[in-house]
UniProtKB/TrEMBL annotation:
<protein>
    <submittedName>
        <fullName>Flippase-like domain-containing protein</fullName>
    </submittedName>
</protein>
<feature type="transmembrane region" description="Helical">
    <location>
        <begin position="31"/>
        <end position="51"/>
    </location>
</feature>
<feature type="transmembrane region" description="Helical">
    <location>
        <begin position="195"/>
        <end position="219"/>
    </location>
</feature>
<keyword id="KW-1133">Transmembrane helix</keyword>
<dbReference type="Pfam" id="PF03706">
    <property type="entry name" value="LPG_synthase_TM"/>
</dbReference>
<feature type="transmembrane region" description="Helical">
    <location>
        <begin position="274"/>
        <end position="296"/>
    </location>
</feature>
<feature type="transmembrane region" description="Helical">
    <location>
        <begin position="63"/>
        <end position="87"/>
    </location>
</feature>
<keyword id="KW-1003">Cell membrane</keyword>
<feature type="transmembrane region" description="Helical">
    <location>
        <begin position="145"/>
        <end position="164"/>
    </location>
</feature>
<keyword id="KW-0472">Membrane</keyword>
<keyword id="KW-0812">Transmembrane</keyword>
<feature type="transmembrane region" description="Helical">
    <location>
        <begin position="251"/>
        <end position="268"/>
    </location>
</feature>
<feature type="transmembrane region" description="Helical">
    <location>
        <begin position="225"/>
        <end position="244"/>
    </location>
</feature>
<dbReference type="InterPro" id="IPR022791">
    <property type="entry name" value="L-PG_synthase/AglD"/>
</dbReference>
<feature type="transmembrane region" description="Helical">
    <location>
        <begin position="120"/>
        <end position="139"/>
    </location>
</feature>
Length: 301
């Protein structure tokens, strides 16, 4: 739990003027918009629980599932690429009696569905709001697209190499793959699971963007909800694969650049992202750690 605090402290030391100005601006902003941003933050944990439930045929206890996702959010800011959240969720599923292959398959399905759903939502915004969104400065150039394609190819190649050469990994991975294919077919025959899986995955990035919009509105940002949502979707899609704890750093910078490209002042954009991190990362960090400890002590994890 110390790593994200050290990262935040280091960033604050290196750019203390931005932090100071951001705190001053947040303190004088409209509290009603900040309260709405807090509501959107809480709804984000519910959507995470929905996606987790949608990725499993078995019914999970609602209260414990939501608590596990709140605790997973705290663990997620310690390790990159959602490893902390997946580790907490895996222990929770195993504690509920879910077989290892099925639990691993559900984590893989969760990881695959979320970026697909985010991309689909981004495409919907591009089609539905062509006159509102100015995307020219946000479209990645050929070099960026090449790096993304190369990174994806390298990741798939390394995974295939590990499966082919490391025998202890081969059997559990193949079992998880077979289970995943079976569960995907089963889940998509149940409308409630389809709605929870794809609806929750589509709602999650929209709620995150809504937090930034509400904080920005409290600061007087000129951007509309559609513009802020598009800026967040475009920025997080472009740099979301960068392995940083909780996405702190790369996504923040990309969102600020995207908001500025759409016409928001730099100071307001930076402060809106700071407020977003306060509400979604720093404020829940200690309560999430306490919930995580309580779940471990009660043998839920």
């Amino acid at each position: 739990m110390i790593l994200p605090l050290l990262l935040v402290a280091l960033w604050a030391v290196l750019d203390w003027r931005t932090v100071r100005d951001g705190i001053v601006r947040l303190a004088s902003s409209d509290p009603r918009w900040l309260l709405l941003a807090l509501v959107f933050t809480c709804l984000g944990w519910l959507t995470a629980a929905c996606v987790r439930q949608g990725a499993l045929p078995e019914r999970l206890p609602t209260g414990l599932l939501i608590a596990s996702q709140f605790a997973a959010g705290a663990a997620n800011h310690v390790l990159p690429a959602s490893i902390g959240a997946h580790a907490v969720t895996l222990r929770f599923l195993l504690g509920r009696g879910i077989p290892l292959a099925r639990a691993t398959a559900s984590l893989a399905l969760y990881s695959v569905v979320r970026p697909i759903a985010k991309t689909l939502v981004l495409l919907v915004f591009l089609v539905a709001c062509p006159g509102v969104l100015v995307a020219g400065d946000l479209v990645p150039d050929e070099g960026t697209l090449f790096l993304v394609a190369a990174g994806a190819t390298l990741g798939l190649g390394l995974t295939a190499l590990l499966v082919a050469t490391v025998r202890p990994l081969r059997r559990p991975l193949l079992d998880a793959l077979r289970c995943a294919l079976t569960d995907v077919r089963l889940l998509h025959t149940r409308p409630s699971r389809v709605l929870a899986l794809w609806g929750g995955a589509a709602a999650a990035p929209v709620l995150q963007a809504s937090v930034i919009f509400a904080v920005g509105a409290a600061l007087g940002s000129p951007l509309s909800w559609a513009q802020v949502t598009f800026a967040f979707l475009a920025a997080s899609t472009a740099v979301g694969a960068v392995p940083a704890p909780g996405g702190i750093g790369p996504i923040d910078a990309a969102v600020v650049v995207a908001m500025v490209a759409l016409g928001a002042p730099v100071e307001v954009s930076a402060t809106a992202v700071i407020g977003y991190r306060v509400l979604t990362v720093w404020l829940p960090l200690l309560p999430g750690a306490l919930v995580l400890s309580a779940l471990v002590q009660r043998k839920v994890l």
